[in-house]
Amino acid sequence: METDSSLAILAALGHPTRLDAFRLLVRHEPDGLSTGQLVEASGLTQSTFSTHLAVLVKAGLVLPEKRGRQQIQRANIKALKDLMLFLAKDCCQGRPELCEPLVAELICC
Amino acid sequence: METDSSLAILAALGHPTRLDAFRLLVRHEPDGLSTGQLVEASGLTQSTFSTHLAVLVKAGLVLPEKRGRQQIQRANIKALKDLMLFLAKDCCQGRPELCEPLVAELICC
DNA sequence: AATTATCATCGGAAATTTACGATCAATCGT
DNA sequence: ACGATTGATCGTAAATTTCCGATGATAATT
C-alpha cells in the first residue's frame, strides 16, 4: 500500500465522528447501514455528516451501495487490513524483533 | 486502549510531515534522532516542525529524551502496537472471521 | 403527476491547523 | 563570563476543516 492512501485513511479516521461511524459499520458487517442510520447515530446534521461520510468514502474505508432511494454504507475491511500492514511494515521490515510481540498479541484476538 | 488516545494517534499520523517523521524514527530505533536531524529531514522551518513534533509527543508516539543540549527523539513502538490492536479489535471482536486473513498476512512479515 | 423520503451539494460562518519569523531558555565550548 | 548552538514558545497570517441551513437531485409512494 502506498503511503498516500495510508495517509488518507489515517486522516479520515483521525476525527471522532468518522472513527465512530467506521467502527459502527464494522460492527454491522456484512449488512451495512443506511446513511440515515449513520446520521442518527452521529447526532449531527444530515449535511454535516454527509461531508464526513464523503471523507471516509474517498479514503476507501467505506463502500457505498445504492439500494432503492437509500444508500447502504459498508465498511471496507480490506482497507483496514491494508492500513495495518502498512503500519506493521514500518516496524517489522526494519526491525523484525520489534514486531514479534505485536503479532503475538494480535493472534490471540 | 481507549478510543481517545487511539484517536489522537490517528490524527497525529494523518499528516504527511508527522507520518514521515514517525516512520523515520521507527527506522532509527533504538538510537533515535535529534530534533535537528528531524527538522532537516522534514525540509520545514525549525519552529514549524517543532509544533508537529509536539503533536507526536502529545499523542505518545514519540518519546523525547534530553541529552546534553540536544533532544533525542525515539519512536514509541508500544504506541503503534496499541493502535494496531485497537484497530484489530474492531474487526476481530465482532467478526472473528474477518480478522483471520488479516492476522495471517501480518504473521508473514 | 404530485408528494414524500433520502441523500448530495452549495454557500458561508466559526474554529482549527499549518506555516513562518522572531524571541526566549538552556546548555555547551571557549 | 561570553558567544554559539539547540530547540521550545509567541504572535500572526493563510489555509483548511468543521458545522449548519438551504437547495437540488433522484427514487419511491400516493
Amino- and carboxy-terminal Cα gap of chain A: 24 Å
Seen as an oligomer or otherwise, the chain set is homodimer
Structural class of chain A: alpha+beta
Major protein interface: A-B, 41 and 40 residues
For the biggest sheet of chain A, the summary is: 3 strands, antiparallel
> Low-confidence stretches of chain A at least 5 residues in length (pLDDT < 50)?
none
What gross morphology of chain A would you assign? elongated
Give the H and E element order of chain A: HHEHHEEHH
Gyration radius from CA atoms of chain A, angstroms: 16 Å
Mean pLDDT of chain A: 90
Q: Please tally the β strands of chain A and state the result.
A: 3
SS field, number of helical segments of chain A: 6
Could you tell me the strand content of chain A as a percent range? 5-15%
Strand ordering within the main sheet of chain A: 1-3-2
Give the helix proportion of chain A (percent range). Answer: 55-70%
Question: What are the SSEs and their pairings?
Answer:
Two copies of one chain form a homodimer.
Chain A lengths: L2 H11 L2 H12 L5 E2 H8 L3 H13 L3 E6 L2 E6 L1 H16 L3 H12 L2
Antiparallel strand pairs in A: 1-3, 2-3
Helix pairs in contact in A: 1-4, 1-5, 2-4, 3-4
The first copy, chain A, binds a DNA duplex (30 and 30 nucleotides) through α3 and α4.
Characterise the protein shown here.
The structure is a homodimer of 109-residue chains. Chain A is α+β, with helices and mostly antiparallel strands. Helices cover 66% and strands 13% of the residues of chain A. The first copy, chain A, contains 6 helices and 3 strands. Chain A has helices spanning 3-13, 16-27, 35-42, 46-58, 77-92, 96-107, and strands at residues 33-34, 62-67, 70-75. In chain A, strands 1-3-2 form a 3-stranded antiparallel β-sheet. In chain A, a hairpin with a 2-residue loop joins strand 2 (62-67) and strand 3. In chain A, helix 1 (3-13) packs antiparallel against helix 4. Chain A starts with a helix and ends with a helix. The mean pLDDT of chain A is 90. The A-B interface holds A 3, 6-7, 10-16, 19, 22-23, 26-27, 29, 75, 77, 80-81, 83-85, 87-95, 98-99, 101-103, 105-107, 109 and B 3, 6-7, 10-16, 19, 22-23, 26-27, 29, 77, 80-81, 83-85, 87-95, 98-99, 101-103, 105-107, 109. Chain A binds a DNA duplex (30 and 30 nucleotides) through residues 15, 17, 34-36, 39, 44-48, 50-54, 68-71.
